[in-house]
Amino acid sequence: MPPCLLTGGRINSARFPESFGEGGQPYAVRAVTTHAARVFFDNAIMLSRGDLPPSSPRTPPEPAILEFTGIPDLRGRREELRVTFYDIPGEAVHDEEWLLDHAPFLPQVQDIVFLFDPTRHDFFERALQAADLRDKIFRLVPDFERKNFLIVLSKMDELRHDDSWAEIIAEFWPDDSPTARQLPEYWTGMERISRHLREWWSGSAPGGRGFVARVPKNTHFCAISSLGHQPVWRCAQCGEHPQDMASVCPFCGVVRDPLAPIRLGNKPRPFRVRDPLFWVFRSAGVM
Q1: Terminal CA-to-CA distance of the chain, rounded, Å?
Q2: What is the pTM of this model?
Q3: Which of 39, 122, 178, 212 could lock onto 186 through a cystine, CB 3.0 to 4.6 A?
């Protein structure tokens, strides 16, 4: 399968379902390259310690190849697939020349993922930046309309109590990994989420309507949380641990030190991080 391009934002973890729970060949994934092993296992070790992995590098990407086995399809068979991932920081793309220098593989990719962090203060500028990036890719990539596009919102658990998201998150999250028998129902749920998020992008995000209107019609939308809860920071005054979104300590009123590191308050409990990968599997004809 041609490479998959992950563009923009940060992925804190990528926990995949260990098994689909129905016997036979188990679902498994392994790192094929040294770089993939560093990302896959080093991040897991950091998260187990309560630390957060670094943001996506601004240097040219090094491909990470993962081999998936035991992927169930709707006919009950088990498939295997190798996927090559590239992580490109979308906001670092200045022009087509930058893309050609840092992403020469673009003409060969099959899947292109736009990853957005909706908790960022400049999130609503991102739709316009994404539209610009989409046009740059369009000018460089042959058969643009035939690519598999994914629009992904990350860190959704941090918006669990936000008025505009609480009802959506309560309806769709959290959930468990599907069994092979549950895949048809699971796909239906993913399609519902995709339609809902497409409508949100078109109606709520400034510039979103133009962005959505110009991506291929088969574009899918996802929303994920790689941590499952908000990180926390330690208040130097009282020693309490406010949530990451708090700029002032709610316990003593001290303003947050901008250099205070953020950490996980609990073990990661990611949800729906498998959705983008499932769409990739489906575009490859496996699921």
Answers
A1: 14
A2: 0.81
A3: 178
Helix/strand/coil for 201:
helix
Tens place of pLDDT per residue across the chain (287 aa): 334 444 333 333 333 444 455 555 678 889 999 988 988 888 888 988 898 887 766 667 788 899 998 887 767 788 889 998 888 777 777 777 777 777 777 778 889 888 888 877 777 677 777 777 778 888 877 777 778 889 898 888 888 878 778 888 888 877 777 877 888 888 999 999 999 888 888 876 666 777 787 777 888 999 998 888 889 999 989 999 998 888 899 999 999 988 888 899 888 888 888 899 999 998 888 87
- Domain extents in the chain: 4-229+270-283, 230-263
Q: Does domain 230-263 have CATH number 2.30.30?
A: yes
Q: Please, where are the H alpha helices in 141-182?
A: 166-172
Bridge partners of 83, per DSSP, are 66
CATH of domain 4-229+270-283: 3.40.50
Tokens representing 38 are 């560093």
